[in-house]
Design a protein that fits this description.
Layout (H helix, E strand, L loop, with lengths): L5 H7 L4 H16 L11 E4 L7 H10 L6 H4 L4 E3 L23 E4 L7 H6 L2 E4 L5 H10 L7 H8 L3 H9 L31 H18 L11 E5 L6 H12 L2 E6 H5 L4 H17 L3 E6 L17 H16 L5 E7 L17 E4 L5 H11 L6 H8 L7 H17 L6 H6 L5 E2 L2 H20 L3 E8 L2 E2 L9 E7 L7 H22 L13 H14 L13 H5 L5 H24 L1 H14 L1 E5 L4 E3 L1
Parallel strand pairs: 1-3, 1-4, 2-3, 5-8, 5-9, 6-7, 7-8
Antiparallel strand pairs: 10-12, 11-13, 11-14, 14-15
Length: 619
């Protein structure tokens, strides 16, 4: 190795203080290790200061060695990153012991990203210190700025890389206002805190614990690696995932950094996407306390359990591997939250401990929460009981839907030059259509069938049946009724218990068949319906769980969603479904009288609770 030292740095980087300061740190470390001499043998591993970027240190290392970037091609001087950004057509991937021939300097963000054999073979492994006060003032002089006092330069040297560079570049940095540099990273909450919002009950305990740990971390009383690493938030569109991220950041006192996987993908080819991912994580790390919110995280993809030969396999393998690497080292003070509508589409490795280790489902708000959301957006000016009455007619609506309802009501009041009143909210309620008495009875029979079969087969110990007398025709579907079960524990499903789940799914349609002689379409036609759940479970039993006539594994439960089974196995699935359909029909015909009696009670009371003995109790 032939180290040229400090002179070349000043000449080349007089207008690039980031690389200049990086070079100062490299020269200082090499001099301290006695490596600034001609003919040094082997390569040196340089670990950049915590939360500093590697790009500037890579460029500065070439200059310190007296080389030009073009020398990389000729292999005259070899400087490289331990984990370089992926570039299409380049073989320069993560470092291995087989890549060290001719290597002079290896730049790493963390010593853990360098393989042990590469570390062992190195002449030296040097952890670079952050810039010194002398480096700060030297950089200011080279950039044509006046130097600072020793005290002020010491304060600046302890700041983040971004703050330090801003201080070096600022021409008129007033030393008596040096604390203004902290304004760069100061968090100004925009909007409410999570703890001030209605709903999110399942997440608030988790968030409260993290909030305490963030305070300890900021006070230097807790290392960041002891704080929860990340979480996944899932739910149907409109349940408030993005709003949650902003409110959580405010509650924790962290800067909010947002990204979408779609945005990363839109930057271009694979190497562009990976570079965009790294820039996002670097931005979060530089904030010294940030909530990194990644929307559409399921779009990162999932690696196949076995090679398929498809040309896109390598693409997704590379993307997921990069995501895993970034999640392993997101940076000090970085909490990562991923949002998705499809949690099952996320690679399992992303959800392991130390990465996105917690998972919270944001359900549609219940009546009480809907009333609380109304109260929140109307600043609490109306009695809660009045808002509950309005919330009764907003079943199935998301938090975003309710917020829009209030905005529309406020607009109407403003246009009429008056304050908001309850009637304005009621005027925005969706128009309802009413079920006929015959339709209500059919809905009640359907739901009663589910409940009775569930109890008869030991699937549950109790069930709550609820039906409605009206529906919103503008909604995605007419939700006429539902059953909520007191389920028996089934942590170790068997063939029998899985067949029971299929039977319970079929029970609503079977009840309609028994009572009316025909069936409605209410049990099928969409994902998540009774027929879809039964069919999906049967296909998994045959093709994934090994519970078919001959035990076999054709793929994971997710894999079977996207590819057909062979004709013989599909026939076996059909046979399994037929057997459970016939069994369920037999059960409901035996209980036809009880079924009809229970359905009539449900029509009268709208909601009923039944226990194992089948006795109805008004809820």
């Amino acid at each position: 190795m032939n180290f040229e030292g400090r002179t070349n740095l000043v000449k080349k980087y007089s207008k690039d203080p980031a690389k200049l300061i990086a070079g100062f740190g490299i020269v200082r470390a090499l001099r301290g290790a006695g490596l600034l001499r001609q003919g040094a043998i082997g390569y040196v591993v340089l670990v950049v200061p915590e939360d500093y970027r590697t790009d500037e240190y890579e460029a500065a290392a070439f200059t310190v060695l007296g080389a030009k970037r073009d020398d990389w091609v000729e292999q005259a001087v070899s400087v490289r990153l331990a984990n370089p950004p992926f570039k299409k057509g380049s073989s320069n991937g993560r470092i291995s012991i087989y890549d060290t021939k001719g290597l002079d300097v290896l730049i790493a963000r963390d010593v853990d990203e360098v393989p042990r054999d590469v570390l062992f073979a190195a002449t030296a492994v040097l952890r670079l210190d952050p810039p010194t006060p002398a480096h700060v003032n030297a950089a200011r002089r080279v950039c044509g700025r006046s130097p600072l006092s020793p005290g002020a330069a010491t304060i600046i040297s302890r700041k983040s890389q971004g703050q330090l560079l801003a201080a070096v570049l600022k021409p008129d940095l007033a030393e008596d206002r040096i604390d203004q540099i902290d304004e760069i990273v100061r968090v100004d909450p925009i909007g409410p805190s999570l703890f001030d919002l209605p709903g999110y009950d399942a997440i608030k305990d988790w968030a409260a614990d993290i909030a305490k740990d963030v305070i300890r971390w900021k006070q230097k009383g807790l290392a960041w690696n002891f704080v929860a690493r990340g979480a996944i938030i899932s739910g149907v569109p409109g349940t408030g995932k993005t709003h949650f991220a902003s409110a959580l950041a405010n509650a924790l006192g962290l800067r909010l950094v947002t990204a979408t996987v779609g945005g990363w993908q839109a930057t271009g080819a694979l190497d562009d996407m990976l570079a965009a991912m790294r820039r996002t994580f670097a931005e979060a790390a530089e904030a010294k306390g940030a909530l990194l919110f990644i929307d559409e995280i399921d779009s990162i993809g999932m690696r196949n359990a076995r090679p398929t030969g498809y040309h896109g396999d390598q693409y997704w393998q590379t993307v997921v591997n990069e995501a895993l690497f970034l999640l392993n080292r997101p940076g000090d003070g970085v909490l990562v939250v991923g949002a998705t509508n499809f949690p099952d589409w996320i690679d399992p490795a992303l959800k392991r401990a130390g990465r996105l280790e917690s998972h919270f489902v944001l359900p549609l708000p219940d009546k009480t929460t809907r009333a609380q959301i109304l109260g929140h957006h109307t600043d609490g000016i109306f009695p809660f009981e009045s808002l509950e009455q309005i919330a009764e007619d907003l079943d199935g609506k998301t938090g975003a839907d309710i917020e829009q309802l209030v905005r529309d009501a406020l607009r109407k009041a403003r246009n009429e030059g008056r304050e908001l009143c309850l009637q304005d909210l009621k005027a925005q309620l969706p128009e309802k259509l009413f079920y006929t008495p015959e339709q209500q009875l059919r809905i009640a029979v359907h739901e009663a069938g589910h409940a009775l079969v569930s109890l008869a087969l030991g699937h549950s110990t109790g069930a709550m049946i609820e039906i409605k007398d009206s529906f919103d025709p503008s909604g995605d579907g007419f939700i006429g009724g539902k059953v909520t079960y007191d389920l028996k524990e089934d942590y170790f499903p068997t063939e029998t218990s899985l067949r029971t789940r299929i039977a319970v799914s079929f029970a609503g349609m079977a009840a309609e068949k028994a009572v009316f002689g025909d069936r409605s379409i209410g049990g099928g036609g969409a994902m998540g319906t009774d027929v879809e759940l039964a069919t999906t479970l049967a296909r998994r039993m045959v093709g994934s769980y090994g519970l078919g006539r001959i035990p076999m594994f054709l793929g994971t439960a997710r894999d079977l969603k996207d590819k057909p089974l062979s004709d013989s196995l599909e026939a076996e699935v059909a046979q399994l479904l037929e057997e459970e359909w016939e069994r369920t029909l037999s059960l409901v015909f035996e209980q036809q009288e009880q079924l009809l009696d229970l359905a009539k009670h449900v029509v009268v009371h709208r909601s009923l609770k039944i226990d194992r003995d089948g006795t109805p109790k008004a809820a």
